[in-house]
Amino acid sequence: QVQLVESGGGLVQAGGSLRLSCAASGSGFSIVSMGWYRQPPGKQRELVAVITRGGTTNYTDSVKGRFTISRDNPKNTVYLQMNSLKPEDTAVYYCNLRYSSGTYIYSSWGQGTQVTVSS
After folding, report:
1. Of 27 and 19, which is predicted with more confidence?
2. CA distance 19 to 68
């Protein structure tokens, strides 16, 4: 069974920076992609950024140029560097892992970490 542990959320003023990290642990799996989603208060969860094992990245338009996703494959860890934060970035951020085990692909979620940006 694969587990995800997130860290790095917190409270920051507008214009500030935070770095989120998410480490996957377990055995018998191969990472397909890792990504970050967020759920603002009263809204649905949305994709923020994703990176494949091969390094291809994709970002939602609202964070392009401000957020950077990266990964450390040997450590099975993904990072989200968030710069120039805005109050509208306030949300619970969730790490997502898509992995293969045998012939199937699975999805696993982290517990979520709160990011609050004050104006």
Report:
1. 19
2. 9
Residue carrying structure tokens 């709160």: 114
> d(Cα 21, Cα 71) in Å, to the nearest integer?
9
The pLDDT assigned to 1 comes to 81
- End-to-end Cα spacing for the chain: 41
DSSP secondary structure letters along the chain: --EEEEE--EEEETT--EEEEEEEE-SS-EEEEEEEEEE-TTS--EEEEEEETT--EEE-GGGTTTEEEEEEGGGTEEEEEE-S--GGG-EEEEEEEEEEETTEEEEEE---EEEEEE-
Q: From CA 46, how far away is CA 28, in angstroms rounded?
A: 29
- Under 8 Å between Cβ of 109 and 3: no
| Contact (CB, 8 A) for 10 and 115 | yes
Beta pairing partners, 5: 23
